[in-house]
Amino acid sequence: MALDSEKRVFKVVGTRPQRPDGIDKVTGRALYGADLSAPGMLVGRLLRSPHAHARIRSIDSSAALALSGVKAIVTSDDFNSASNSFNQDVLDNCMARGTALYHGHTVAAVAASSKTVALQALKLIKVDYEILPHVTDIADAMVADAPVVQDGRGAQDAPAGTSANVTDVVAFGHGDLEAGFAKADKIVERTFRTAATHQGYIEPHACLATMGPDGKADLWCCTQGQYAVRAFCADMLGMEVSQLRVTASEIGGGFGGKTTVFIEPIALALSRKSGRPVKIVMDRDEVFKGSGPTVSSLTDVKIGMTKDGRITAAHAMLRYSGGAFPCGTIEFGAMSAFAAYDLEAVQTEGINVMTNRPREAAYRAPGAPMAIYAVESVVDELCQELGLDPLDVRLKNAAHAGTKSSYGPTFNEIGLVATLEAAKAHPHYSAPLGVNQGRGLSCGFWFNFGGNTCVSLNLNADGTVGITEGNPDIGGSRAAISQMAAEELGIGYDKIRTVIADTNSLGYNDVTDGSRVTFAVGLATIQAARDAIQKMCSRVAKLWDIDEDAVVWEDGYAKPAGANAGEFEPMSIAEIAAIANNTGGPIAGHYEVNADGAGVSFGVHLVDLEVDPETGFTTVLRYTVFQDAGKAVHPSYVEGQMQGGSVQGIGWALNEEYIYGEDGLLQNPGFLDYRVPVASDLPPIEAVILEIPNPGHPYGVRGVGETSIVPPLAALTNAVSRAIGKRMYELPMSPPKILKAIKG
Amino acid sequence: MVKVVIWGSLRTVTDGQAEVEVEAATFKEVITQLEAIHPGLKPRIERGVSLAIDGTIYREAWFMPVKPDSEVVLMPLMVGG
Amino acid sequence: MNKIHVTTTLNGDPAEFLCEPQETLLDILRDTLGLTGAKEGCGSGDCGACSVMLDGRLVCSCLVLAAEAQGRTIETIEGMADGEKLHPLQQKFLDHAALQCGICTPGILVAAKSLLERNPDPTETEVRYWLAGNLCRCTGYDKIINAVMDAAAQMRGA
């Protein structure tokens, strides 16, 4: 759906009204996943493997079932075979089938009359494990004789000499690398390591499942996509999708980690078996052990540059591990690594390697942060070696309209050069730096998508409008959607109420991911509004007894198109809706689409920091984010995405990592030792929004939610490297690692 | 005829060709023809592919028209977070 | 098992409940008293999402045994507004878009109110350090700090 060709002056879009769910959230009234209960409800708890890798010889639940108050126990035997291998992997990750694949892998689940009884019952379940050799590190998992995590999943075209843990082999790029490197005055080749990190949402996974004796079920859960939950669970329980109605609660953070299922099929299976509602809430320990962290990575990057700063060739070999299952995230890493650059010769190769760790789930621009971290670090090192300004070098090599991207297609209009120029002109870039201080920058990139979307827009007799959409609001999207409808209908923002529907109320909606909601749901809302307008005009035309095309919609009123059409008083939504019963029935607009044309998004981040040479502690002093939003519908929430993603990236760069022991057990499954940024760690985060309209959306909107997590990793690496005078090649740059680098 | 750019690791099933020419006027016809000419592409296509047509990524739009001079690039199906 | 009978004052009103010895105040607030505003983010006092006031002192309710509430005064997020009238902090959070998912918001509001009761004119650094016990993963804290500073200024009549 193309950008409106007339240059538009917006009345509501671009302002900062109060969000509709705001009052409920500041008063504690809003209902999240764990906030609902049901009469007769049982508490569900999960038994998790204490071993990193073990065959399950048998599970004896008899003693547990005999405990008073225990109503049902399920294992993998209680589930259907999934209809495809992807869903089977999701299911096997929810509940181990024959083998526990990682520390914390669920092997059984109990529903009981109270938490106390459920926890007691877990202790009584006897699991006979045969401990198997394990592997948690990528390099260890790749060697030819490494313990194999799952048999028969290895890729046919895995590199020679690697183990059967190598799944997914990819390559992208174009041009003659050898010729390109020959032209370079300086070549830098480095290896980078990142650990698995977690999305860190403050709300643990929670759900309440109720299945009746007729096989119909209701599921309440915190999720980024109730339709995806329905699809997974129906498949795993052998239900038709119409039998399962899923309602999304308010969600306490997701960032990609709640786009799949972990406990929901289990709650449904327990409810089916016990005949009672079952509520499962993960505790924090379980979230770290049993949900979906990112891939870890081991990446080689080689870039050649001329002495005046032109990149002549670029190569990357990426090795990712998405835990104990095959994982396609390597594709996005390999595609995005060099996306910010206009290159004649570029090649990325990638593999995924299985390890005995939890199955990966998406985390804001999945695959891109660790790839771009490595690339932007090498570019910076080249700038240092050649004595060149890092922003000027980015500008010299920046992708622009007409660039053949490193992943194949030619770019149309993109905002990278504009964001780089904005960064260069900003006072942050020329502010003075003190002792032990360093400045770093990085570009960032993400694809953004559209996807399957349904919106229904209903007109009420008092002139108010009800919008029904199907995407959980993770960042303020209900406000933006209401704004776009208000803009299109020409009425006040306060006349619109946007709610998120259960799976029965609308057709399929893709999950809230890919920075898609403001773009795709917005586009569908605008079209639904136009549909309603057309229907209103049609009613009015009948009323005035004139042709339908003689009625126009302007500023919230149906009006005659011109003097020739006749003299009629304009009619408002309220007036038209009030007589809807007489003119044909209730009036609603709707729109269903698989939206494309989301447009890629670029950003640039600048950071100043200071490293204490005695402790290795890093203080972030100043942070500025530049990002192209296309059109910022609600600027506060666009800023919010830019700031939030940046801080997650800061945590990733400085402190966050999954730490495994020799025994394959996760050592830091809690917020004390998995240290995310707190308020006192940070300065203000300045967000500079650029608006280069996206031709694929009527108002020019681009997705913004994900790109901001990408630049901080290299921006902070480059700043620390400059502050201490030594390059860093591993994340996180926690104090012991920085001290080690300083001491040499 | 439309030229479809094939990404690096898939070229093992297209006899090493980086570009495959197909007779097609829509997204669906491109995919069907690719499978017919190089059956080795079937598993990947079944797992999910998108097409970038003249710089815009179309995830699964069968009826999207493709012109003979369009730039068409085969891509993995996109997922986000 | 014999439950313990507890009498307390909750958001200004008398309240009583039965609890098991190991149950936390957070468990009772949410599961017995139906006040789900306080959230369990970690159960170990690291995230602050369960923050409440106990006898005028800011605490993590996941670290308080329910039985310890005997004879004491509890204030939760549900008592912060005065009927329909929002507390200035609540209003400023809305004005400044200082929340995205909102799960940390009740805890942060209770904590911020506690700060302003002791120190009506905090510096930005003081606000950041006071709120260091409240994790937020969505906002990066920027708008939260702005909202608290602005509410403080309004409450001082500045």
Describe this structure in words.
The complex is a heterotrimer of chains A (744), B (81) and C (158). Chain A is α+β, with helices and mostly antiparallel strands. A seven-stranded mixed sheet of chain A has the order 3-5-1-12-9-10-11, with helices on both faces. Chain A is globular and about 85 Å long. Chain B is α+β, with helices and mostly antiparallel strands. Chain B has one domain (2-76): Beta-grasp domain (Ubiquitin-like (UB roll), Roll), CATH 3.10.20.30. The radius of gyration of chain B is 12 Å and the shape is globular. By secondary structure, chain C is an alpha+beta fold. Chain C has a five-stranded mixed sheet with strand order 2-1-5-3-4, sandwiched between helices. In chain C, β1 (4-10) and β2 form a beta hairpin. In chain C, α2 packs across α5 (142-155). Chain C is globular.
Task: Break the fold down into its secondary structure elements and pairings.
The complex is a heterotrimer of chains A (744), B (81) and C (158).
Chain A: H1 22-27, E1 42-48, E2 54-60, H2 62-66, E3 70-74, H3 85-94, E4 99-100, E5 106-112, H4 115-124, E6 126-131, H5 138-142, E7 166-174, H6 177-182, E8 186-194, E9 206-211, E10 217-221, H7 226-237, E11 244-248, H8 264-274, E12 278-281, H9 284-290, E13 296-305, E14 311-321, H10 329-336, E15 346-353, H11 368-386, H12 390-397, H13 416-425, H14 427-430, E16 437-446, E17 451-459, E18 465-469, H15 477-489, E19 496-500, H16 517-544, E20 551-554, E21 557-560, E22 571-572, H17 573-578, H18 580-583, E23 588-595, E24 601-611, E25 618-628, H19 635-654, E26 685-690, H20 711-724, H21 735-743
Parallel strand pairs in A: 1-12, 10-11, 14-15, 18-19, 25-26
Antiparallel strand pairs in A: 1-5, 2-4, 2-6, 3-5, 7-15, 8-13, 9-10, 9-12, 13-14, 16-24, 17-18, 17-23, 20-21, 21-22, 24-25
Helix pairs in contact in A: 7-8, 10-11, 11-20, 12-13, 15-16, 19-20
Chain B: E1 2-5, E2 19-22, H1 27-37, H2 42-47, E3 49-53, E4 56-58, E5 72-76
Parallel strand pairs in B: 1-5
Antiparallel strand pairs in B: 1-2, 3-4, 3-5
Chain C: E1 4-10, E2 13-19, H1 25-32, E3 51-54, E4 57-60, E5 73-75, H2 88-95, H3 105-118, H4 124-130, H5 142-155
- Kindly report the average pLDDT value of chain B: 92
Helix vs. strand class of chain C: alpha+beta
**Runs of chain C with pLDDT <50, length 5+?**
none
Tally of individual domains of chain B: 1
Distance between the termini of chain B: 37 Å
